[in-house]
Amino acid sequence: MAALQHLKANQMPTASLDGPDEVAKEGVRQPTVWVARLQVNAFRSYRQAGMETNGRPVILTGPNGAGKTNLLEALSFLTPGRGLRGARLSEVDRRVGGDGAEGGETSQPWAVAAEVVVAGERRSLGTGRDPASPRDKRAVKLDGAFASSQQALGEVLSVVWLTPQMDRLFQEGPSERRRFLDRLVFGSDPAHAGRIAKYEQALRERSRLLRWEKGTPDPAWLTVLEETLAEQGVAIAAARCALAERLASACALAGGAFPRASLAVAGDVEAWLTDMPALAVEDRLQEHLRASRSGDAEQGGAAVGPHRSDLRVGHLQRAMPAELCSTGEQKALLIAIVLANSRLIASERGAAPLLLLDEVAAHLDEERRRALYDELLALEGQSWLTGTDPSLFDGIGGNAEFFSVREGRIAPDS
Ligand SMILES: Nc1ncnc2c1ncn2[C@@H]1O[C@H](COP(=O)(O)OP(=O)(O)OP(=O)(O)O)[C@@H](O)[C@H]1O
Ligand SMILES: [Mg+2]
Predict the structure, then answer these.
(1) What ranges make up the beta strands (E) of 307-351?
(2) Closest CA to 203 of 81, 299, 307
(3) Which atom of ligand 1 is nearest to the CA of 45?
(4) Which ligand places an atom closest to the C-alpha of 104?
(5) How far apart are CA 404 and CA 388, in angstroms?
(6) 41 is in an annotated binding site
(7) What are the average pLDDT values for consecutive 10-residue runs of the chain, which has 414 residues?
(8) Which of 29, 103, 158, 346 could disulfide-link 95, Cβ–Cβ 3.0 to 4.6 Å?
(9) 11-20 long-range contacts, Cβ below 8 Å, gap at least 24?
């Protein structure tokens, strides 16, 4: 794919592998996972731009519309999935010269390339829209070689983000909460992305069969699909429950300025898993699906399965469900969860996730901002933060790298 080859040909000089030790203040932990170099091509507002970092937290500042969130989105494509905006891939191609609602013309497919350091090893990751694919599909390159699927990225790196859109995570329907939980699971269990892809494909195919072939769907094909749904569905539910439990323990251990969160996954399959072995739950789910074919045909989809589950979060000190907490408390709960997740994954996998925090500082009072910066400096995964006002980041001072973003250009602040 041309854009990815182009990125390879334009590689920037190699940054030091030594990381921030030489520059950071004493007592600041050197991250074990960080982005040494990032380059974007034809990516939203960027024609071509690149930056290098030394492992310390990265602070991107600039006016509204400068391209700060676009850069975080580029990083979010270094893991499987549709990135932090959940975008269609063609939407990300850079548009130029438009004056109508459709935007301008796109000239080439977008691409992102990065050199990441994971536990002392430098890996090169590349991804971009594959123009040869009839469906919206991403091409992926790992250490210079094309990979057959996006899942390969998850084996190298996990990325977790908080965006302003997630401020309503606890108010809205469960699908965004499931996605949030699944991204946390990817960090400790990269195979989770593959299970979800297989499950969703079987779910769509079963719904299609039931909808279009009412009365005459091929029962043998439905049975095959339901077998896949039961097998993958139970594995998905079990992985989500296991992580929620470990995360709840990690949150309970954390002290400091952020609330302690309780986490639980609610759903039929999850409830069955509490008092039946996984294999028996698979049989039960498969039997349930077989028996509900006509009802599911009427409803337009399966009524039971992990695609209906919900993540329930609570504020332990307040003994309050998250949806009844204040906006700032909800934000603090989300931050507490991603921080606990980062510590948990670091201890379990030896490689913490990258943390992308879009506009979080503005929501927090000064004491919590300082507490956040202290926490970020102690993490093993590099964090990337954005804000319009550099003074919001005074508390992190010389322990972070500051970059100004303006009109598609990124410049380190001297
Ligand atoms: N496909 C695209 N092609 C060209 N430009 C795009 C495309 N998609 C988005 N943009 C533009 O990218 C610009 C930067 O967006 P971005 O969300 O990164 O800004 P930001 O710096 O995060 O701003 P804010 O402080 O308001 O959050 C916007 O002006 C947006 O219209
Ligand atoms: Mg933004």
Answers:
(1) 310-315, 320-321
(2) 307
(3) 5
(4) 1
(5) 10
(6) no
(7) 44 40 54 96 96 96 97 97 93 80 74 95 96 85 94 92 94 95 91 94 94 77 97 98 95 84 97 96 98 91 96 95 94 94 90 95 88 93 96 91 94 91
(8) 103
(9) 11/39, 11/113, 12/37, 12/39, 12/50, 12/52, 14/115, 15/52, 15/53, 15/54, 15/115, 16/54, 17/117, 17/120, 17/122, 19/54, 19/55, 19/117, 20/54, 20/55, 20/56
Lookup result for tokens 């980062």: 342
Q: Which ligand has the minimum distance to the alpha carbon of residue 44? A: 1
- For residue range 206-228, list pLDDT tens digits in order: 999 998 766 677 889 999 999 99
Torsion, Cα 324 273 347 59, to 10 degrees, reads -40
Backbone torsions φ then ψ of 396, nearest 5 degrees? -95, -20
The superfamily in CATH containing domain 1-157+354-414 is P-loop containing nucleotide triphosphate hydrolases (3.40.50.300)
At residue 110, the 3 state secondary structure works out as: coil
Report how far ligand 2's centroid is from the alpha carbon of 403 (Å).
14
* Atom of ligand 1 at shortest range from CA of 94: 3
End-to-end CA distance of the chain: 36
Token pair 């993958």 is found at 232
> Could you list which residues have their CB under 5 Å from ion ligand 2?
68-69
Average pLDDT, the chain: 89
Q: 135-162, pLDDT tens digit by residue?
A: 778 999 999 999 998 889 999 999 999 9
